[in-house]
Amino acid sequence: MTQSDYTMVFQEDMIELAKLTHAALAQDSPEDPYHYLNQILNLSWGYLTRKQRDEIEVYLRDKEYLQPVVILANDGTPLNK
Predict the structure, then answer these.
(1) Three-state SS for 22?
(2) d(CA 52, CA 26)
(3) Is 50 part of a structural domain of the chain?
(4) What is the model's pTM?
(5) Is 6 within a domain?
(6) Domain count, the chain
(7) First-residue to last-residue Cα distance in the chain
(8) Is residue 24 part of a domain?
């Protein structure tokens, strides 16, 4: 079994994260969803260690959030398998 690391989060911050998430999804919110997403990012970023922040920088730099590109031949078979 792998050992997980835990981060203590203030209860007020956890509630605020949940509220901001609901506000971002609500149709009648006064702000654009990106406004709430930025607030969620800013609040959660403060809990990250330097190592975790570096991992996120690599994730963004390498665009790991994108699906792998599969180039198809004319017959539909993948070329870059």
Answers:
(1) helix
(2) 30
(3) yes
(4) 0.74
(5) no
(6) 1
(7) 33
(8) yes
Residue with tokens 């930025």: 38
**Cα distances (angstroms) measured from residue 48 to each of 5, 12, 44, 52, 71:** 12, 17, 7, 6, 37
Question: Cβ–Cβ contacts within 10 Å for residue 53, how many?
Answer: 10
Q: Which residue in the block uniquely carries the two structure tokens 């398998």?
A: 81
For residue 72, what are the β-bridge partners? 78
- pLDDT tens, position by position, 10-64: 999 999 999 999 999 999 999 999 999 999 999 999 999 999 999 999 999 999 9
Domain that holds residue 16: 11-61
10 Å Cβ neighbour count for 20? 21
| Residue 1, pLDDT above cutoff 90 | no
37 domain residue, yes or no:
yes
Interatomic CA distance for residues 81 and 78, integer angstroms: 6
* No. of helices (H) and no. of strands (E), the chain: 3, 0
